[in-house]
Amino acid sequence: MNTLSSVKERLFNGIIKENPTFVMMLGMCPTLAVTTSCINGLGMGLTNTVVLAMSNIIISSLRKIIPDKVRVPAFIVIVASLVTVVQFLLQAYIPSLNDSLGIYIPLIVVNCIILGRAESYASKNPVIPSLFDGIGMGLGFTVGLGLLGAFREIIGYGTIFGYDFLTLINNLIDKISKSPSFNIEPIRIIGLAPGAFFVLAFLVAIQNKVKASKGKKSNDMDKCSGSCTSCKGGCVDE
């Protein structure tokens, strides 16, 4: 039961509470560089997830063997070996994705998310929690890059997964409004380098707004004591 609770906590922590992209702001180099499309973002995120999970397993298994003085070089060697294997697999089976991600696949070796989780969690905890810590953080990174890539691809290019999304929307607008002169056009700057900053800032702002509203609601409920007539949470004294 404790193991199941720990697994759920690790997954929730990585995907929501400490999301690497939207909360901790880690791995910004690949986040801003490869998210020109949704498939690129998902590909980079899932690649990092595999490396995170496997490196956490190995580092956790060897945590009592690796000398403290050389732990960081040892972590880098482990991660570099896994990245090399993953890159060879991508070259063999998904060459188009490998070409799209380019130099950012080898740079996974020094990704602060992977080294950070190795240092702060995997090197101090058992294998199973470390595995799910890596999966949770990797999935959180994948969600962040996928959302960023989807927004940039739709707004900047008018497509999603290769389908002409804006043409479909424009056709629907034409049928509803019967006004063929009105068409939505892509905002090209969103697909360029500055667009990554704009979209990331927009998504983080939405997240912060949601968190702030939830925090305000929680504070209002905490003020309710005894008689509910003065409660700002909206409850009624019965």
Kindly describe this structure.
- With 238 residues, the chain is mostly helical.
- It has a domain at 2-142.
- The chain is 68% helix and 2% strand.
- The protein contains ten helices and two strands.
- The chain has helices at 2-17, 28-33, 38-61, 71-93, 95-101, 112-120, 127-157, 165-177, 188-191, 193-222; strands spanning 159-160, 163-164.
- The protein has a two-stranded antiparallel ribbon with strand order 1-2.
- Strand 1 and strand 2 form a beta hairpin.
- The chain is globular, with a radius of gyration of 22 Å.
- The protein starts with a helix and ends in a 16-residue tail after the last helix.
Structural descriptors:
238 residues, mainly alpha, two-stranded antiparallel sheet, 10 helices, 2 strands, 2% strand, globular
Number of strands: 2
Structural class: mainly alpha
The overall pLDDT, averaged over residues, is 86
Termini Cα gap: 39 Å
The poorly predicted ranges are none
Q: What's this model, at a glance?
A:
The chain is built from ten helices and two strands, in the order αααααααββααα.
Helix/strand layout:
Blueprint: H1 2-17, H2 28-33, H3 38-61, H4 71-93, H5 95-101, H6 112-120, H7 127-157, E1 159-160, E2 163-164, H8 165-177, H9 188-191, H10 193-222
Antiparallel strand pairs: 1-2
